[in-house]
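# nightly structure sweep
# worker-07 picked up a monomer target from the shared queue
# config: single-sequence mode, recycle default, output format = structure tokens
# input follows
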Amino acid sequence: MPSARTPDACATLSDWLQYLESIHATTIDMGLERVREVAARMDLELSGVKFVVGGTNGKGSTCAMLEAILLAAGYKVGLYTSPHLIDFNERARVNGQIASDEALIEQFIAVEAARGETSLTYFEFTTLAILRLFAQSRLDAVVLEVGLGGRLDAVNIVDADCAIVTSVDLDHTDWLGDTREKIGFEKAHIYRPGRPAICSDPVPPQSLLDYVEKIGADLWLFGRDYNYSGDRQQWAYGGREQRRGALAYPALRGANQLLNASAALAALESVRDRLPVQAQAVRQGLLQASLPGRFQILPGQPTIILDVAHNPHAAAVLAQNLDNMGFHPYTYAVFGMLNDKDLAGVVAKMGSRVDHWYCAGLPGPRGATGQALADQVSAALPAAPAGAQAPGVSACADPVQAFAAARERATENDRIVVFGSFLTVAAVLQSLGRKA
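# output follows
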């Protein structure tokens, strides 16, 4: 594939990102050979303790809590997450600060020089750039979120000192397989022999357990090696040798956040000889961790909830969180979803909680029109019980138009749930003039 022209010295970050989208034949190209080859040429060496976090859902929350606790403990920390909501820079944070355009461009130039004729995907190229930024930042710890799967994801060129698999469920089935066993096998490959392997899925697939045994990783299972307990006021973590009590609930909202928080604390316990963390840093970090678009409730009325849930497992958690909110007369969904996702599964999990669906068109080859989405939602909705009114379904051109329609309809006591994709949440956040 002929390459686009390499950006010149005056190129902006936007110019670079446009260029990176054009230099590889496909958006996703699973495999580590090319990215390893370029990393070797760059002599990439990360200092500090390396945490790698994979899983179907809960990765971002676990990463955010790890970062916040380590920062509160006074450590120098790098955080790499993906995808971003609004600005690419969100993917890289050094000591809690989002990377500047200038810092990222400097790393892009270095990767471009090192790759030579080797073709890299957008994700591979940007992963190498951010790893180089971290390598130059003399960090005590890096927290790296896996992009897709684990075994063949570019992040897996890093040998984790501690790896976490948060959950295993069906998503990206075209790439990872169509069963939990196949997906668990892919995700388990971020674990390393002899090193802590945290699994916070309460019922891990056998394939994950078998892989851990095969390589001789140090498996920490939720419910066996660590756990949590709690009442209305506070909660406690219990690990193999460490107990942390009188903890405030995490600032991140939602039913699964104690599961994610306890995985983060298990990871920290497993490396406590290298990164000791005081109780106060844990308390402070849990209260300061933030992650836009994960059951994010905006101030004001009507109640507006933003959630990037885009698979049935995440939709089930969103539904549970909505159930825990208290009474709202009507719930309006601003729903935009990519066409390679399990739409019927997501709609089924949300069930009768939505009174009216505003279906938003999304751009790009994986996007669909609002009308096509509305037709799919109508087909997927379960039949209304006798005497009950069936949910309404409307088609809208894009998330902003869908959100405007929902706001016009909603009274101050109602709620609007914006979900289905990072793209959907990002569009609404931007329309409100908010940064991620």
